[in-house]
Amino acid sequence: MSTTLSKIEKRTAYTLLLPAVCLVFAIILFPIFANVWISFKEVGLKDIRIPEPRAKKIVKNIQDNNSELKIIYKLRNSSLIQDIREVRFSDRLPKNVEPVNLDKRCEFKSPKVKCFFGNWEAGYRENFEIFVKDKNNDTINSKDIKSNKINLNGKSNNILLTTDFTLKNFKNVFMNNNFFELFMTTFYFTFFGTLGAILLGIFAAQLVNQKFYGRTFMRSILLFPYVGPVVALAYTWTLLLDPNSGTINSLLVNYGVIEKPINLLGQKYLIFNILGFELKLRLALTTVIFFEIWRYFPLAFLFILARLQAIPRDLYEAADVDGAGPFRKFFYITLPQITAILSILFMIRFIWNFNKFEDIFLLTGGASGTLTLPISVYQQGFAISNIGMGSAVSIVIVLLLITFMIIYFRLIGKKANEI
Amino acid sequence: MKFKSLTITLFASSIFLTINICIWKILATLQGVSFTNLNFNLNLSLSLGLTLIFILIGKRFNHILKIFLLSLSFTIIYTFLNESSPLWFSAGIFLLILFFTNKLKKYDFKYLNQDFISEKIVFEFLSLFAIIFFALVILFPFYIMFVTSFKTQTALLINPLDLSIDFSKNIFEIFKSYFVIFKTYDFGRYILTSSYVSIGTVLITLLFAIPAAYAVARLNFFGKTFLSTSILIIYMFPAIVLVIPLYTVFSQLGLRNSVEGLLIVYTATTLPVAIYMLQGYFKSIPKEIEEAGLIDGQNWFGIIIKIIIPLSLPAIASVSLYVFMIAWNEFLFSLMFLDNPKTFTLSRAINHLTGDAETPRQYLMAGSVVVTLPILLIFIYFEKYLVSGLTAGSVKG
Predict the structure, then answer these.
(1) Omega of the bond prior to A374 within 30 degrees of 0, cis?
(2) Beta carbons of B265 and A351 less than 8 Å apart
(3) Residue burial B334-347, b: 16+ Cβ < 10 Å; e: rest
(4) Which listed residue, A198, A249, B191, B240, has the most CB atoms within 10 A of its CB?
(5) What digits encode the pLDDT tens for the residues B348-372?
(6) Domain assignment present for A78
(7) Shortest Cα distance from A86 to chain B (angstroms)?
(8) How far apart are CA B209 and CA B319, in angstroms?
(9) A204 and A310: one domain?
């Protein structure tokens, strides 16, 4: 009895899970495997389109009474780079209409004309003609002929399904001198973005955890940067930071802080002289990092605030009795209580910032020293149109990601489950 | 002791006040008032004097009378020493000082004599400063976005700092950018597409996620632990590694440039977190209620529809709002999959606007307001639900 019950339970569970699992498998897991496949191939954006035989039908009358017609089929291979094999064609003719002097490649089996065209090389074109005649010399309605759909098909190699592989993409990714720089840029962006967001989050959470007038309002607006659409926010910041008549530059120039507008998003380096040392700051990268911090500190804030509110009050009351000031309370009570959540937050945000695409793409498009790995996927795949290279870069990303995850689960995986 | 706390108070409070005056001045500059000097040092010494006088007077006066007189005299001296300014600016300064001196109410020599007071004072001013700082840093871009959308191209070119809205013009002139983006750039259609995609994503996600979450939460089956851990791991995989394969497959299947393709992708990417959030909530529902349902002869379908869903409406609301937000704000997939303006979502449409360098910035900002406003209003109205959704879902973002 119990076995049948558990069997039913199992079957129910699988039925309930099946749709979700299938969808996730098709859209998330399959692409990850497909990436591996594509990354070992030389595929460009133009190769993706499968070549198709195409035809356009034109009907012309050659006699006044319309009892004989000429049908012209404009045939072509849609691809300019790939052949199509074994092209077959068929079209239906109206009743009592039959072809005259039919092409050798074709045969007529009433009411269908069937043709076998063989191979079409890349860019193939042909104007194929059929003369038709009504058996009873009646008028043929040319609309009848036009409305019939042509059936045309052929075989072609789908470059994605062939089995020739190459290591060229990975070679290009790693042997390219830029890879180290690419990785370091991604790392700077991720590390400082995450760190800054968490620090700002701690400040904000500490602030909102106090009682003051307008606290709920403050809590709402602190989440605005995260809730707002990235497109709108990124373009607003681009406008604010614009060197020509952007608000921030205009303000700085107006108050004499700087002489000339600074192109915060378009200048790669800012060079300082401190004590005779020349310091180079990656300016555009720093600006992008600040945007990242601005946009994602609300999340850190939300997490830390939730943790702060769970800290028992009596700890602080005891500290008050001992005469500890607010700073001591923070360093000796609050900070030890939130380290667990901070480390989890750091790891999770680190992984996510590492893969951040939209923010940099919208702000700089990867120019002026802000090219990170995810942007590189886009550039390789869609700007340079080398899908294989793009895939190879995303495989590198996945591998790095798995490494981070292993570190994450080793270090704090157990803690994560407790919270 | 007294001396130390006094100096700290003087400096902390006057720096705080001066920074506030500077912020007010900058905001006034953005209304077209032509200031060119912040006079930081001058105003700092003025503020120092004000705080000192305030503490020296102490509680010997009626508080309200005291702050009123002090604010008035400070404002007069300030206006006299600084650049000429319109009346409303001075009025703002007056209100600022009034607020500031009111905050200082408890400060006198007696208060400064307490133990450990210096640290408390620094902390208090830091908190006040932090409130101003966060409010400014967050709201400023939103403010600029909003105000720029009401300007005209020429006005912005003549004086980029004058962002005041000219109310003497008629309504049509003021809202011109909005009329233009709806008429010329077809934003009405994009709003419809975006809403359709977002709401569709929410519905399909719920349809798939509720049964799956119920199975994970309640039923025993082979591979359950594996499934629940893989949900989280799958969720960590970023969209950027899915883009190329999905692009190629969708191109070959003809799903690019279609709302359906977008719906499928959005649903799949939000499913793991939806399942994760819902199963956590389902687990907290007492099992006895379902057992009662079982005895009444309900099958799993009946249990989910009649017991689980009505009991977990708050969680479903959280998930729905979170998924809606993700779908509404999503950019990467809409950038990759949509090139035909007929199928654009709002985000993609705004990105398309910037593709033409000639597009005036006020149209861009009007578009940004159109895409931002709905989601912010939803957030404000349903804050409680969305916040719990964010907390649960914020492993992603």
Answers:
(1) no
(2) no
(3) bbbbbeeeebbbbb
(4) B240
(5) 999 888 877 777 888 889 999 999 9
(6) yes
(7) 20
(8) 10
(9) yes
